[in-house]
Automatic annotation (TrEMBL):
Highest taxon, organism lineage: Bacteria
Keyword Signal: yes
Record key words, sorted: Signal
Residue ranges of domain DUF3152 in the record: 65-229
Annotated signal sequence range: 1-20
InterPro entries: DUF3152
Pfam families reported in the protein's UniProt record: DUF3152
Annotated region (Disordered), positions in chain: 23-64
Name used for this protein in its record: DUF3152 domain-containing protein
Length: 251
């Protein structure tokens, strides 16, 4: 009888522990400061990008191929970044069920767009992240390859589930590219992440595609670096040494 009682108690304890394990992530807290994301340099040669570690603010497991199609709107906002010009407000959303940390992704977006080498360096625009319920000019989404392709296709852009895209008011970052960058990029993952944010947000600001200006030179941020550097060196920033860095427009 004593042995039977112990076995029953053990089973009850196991059921209690399992039932106490949460199956849904907790409430998304406001993001921390921009220091949560270490800004990359100007794209010097480095090792081929590796999948991110926990220190990158993202989980290191492989992304899911097909997510829920629903997005978690990140709470909180950021200070205004920039010295002059109209204010562009943006929201951040992360597809639910992907295992990604919405707060960490928002911090990466904030740090990139508030960097003095980003678009605010022009002195002609400012940026600020706002909470999900507030009015915004555009939203930055982190979406699985399946969802990003579907969203981009709604605007007539077919990415084959591989690239990110921008539609009016929507900057859609492909989760696979966010986690692994692209082959032969020859720069740290952080450089690619800053590049893809600046590139797609650049489209939102009216920028067009540009070409590599010559072998060994930094790639313009509006070059389609995801498809290859064509002799240029990876670069994440539209402003280098305080000047707008650009290539010839691509017809």
């Amino acid at each position: 009888m004593a042995l039977a009682a112990l076995l029953v108690a053990g089973v009850a304890t196991l059921v209690l522990v399992r039932s106490a394990t949460p199956t849904v992530p907790g409430t998304v807290a406001p993001t921390g400061g921009a220091g949560a994301y270490s800004g990359p340099g100007t794209g010097a040669h480095g090792p081929v990008p590796e999948p991110p570690s926990e220190t990158d603010g993202q989980r290191s497991d492989a992304p899911v191929e097909r997510g829920s199609g629903r997005f978690v709107a990140v709470a909180g906002g950021s200070p205004v970044a920039g010295t002059g010009g109209p204010l562009h407000r943006y929201r951040v959303g992360v597809e639910a069920g992907t295992g990604q940390d919405p707060t960490a992704f928002a911090a990466a977006v904030d740090a990139t767009l508030s960097d003095p080498r980003s678009w605010i360096a022009s002195g002609e625009l400012r940026v600020q992240r706002v909470a999900g319920a507030e009015a915004a000019d555009f939203t930055v989404y982190l979406a699985t390859s399946f969802t990003s392709e579907r969203m981009c296709a709604e605007g007539g852009l077919h990415t084959a589930g591989y690239t990110s895209c921008r539609l009016p008011g929507k900057v859609i970052i492909n989760l696979d590219r966010w986690l692994t960058a692209v082959p032969d990029y020859a720069a740290p993952l952080a450089v690619y992440r800053a590049y893809v944010i600046n590139h797609e947000v650049g489209h939102e600001f009216g920028e067009l595609h540009e070409a590599c200006p010559g072998p060994g030179r930094p790639a313009p941020v509006m070059q389609q670096q995801t498809y290859g550097l064509t002799g240029c060196v990876a670069n994440a920033w539209p402003y280098l040494d305080g000047r707008r860095y650009a290539g010839d427009l691509v017809p």
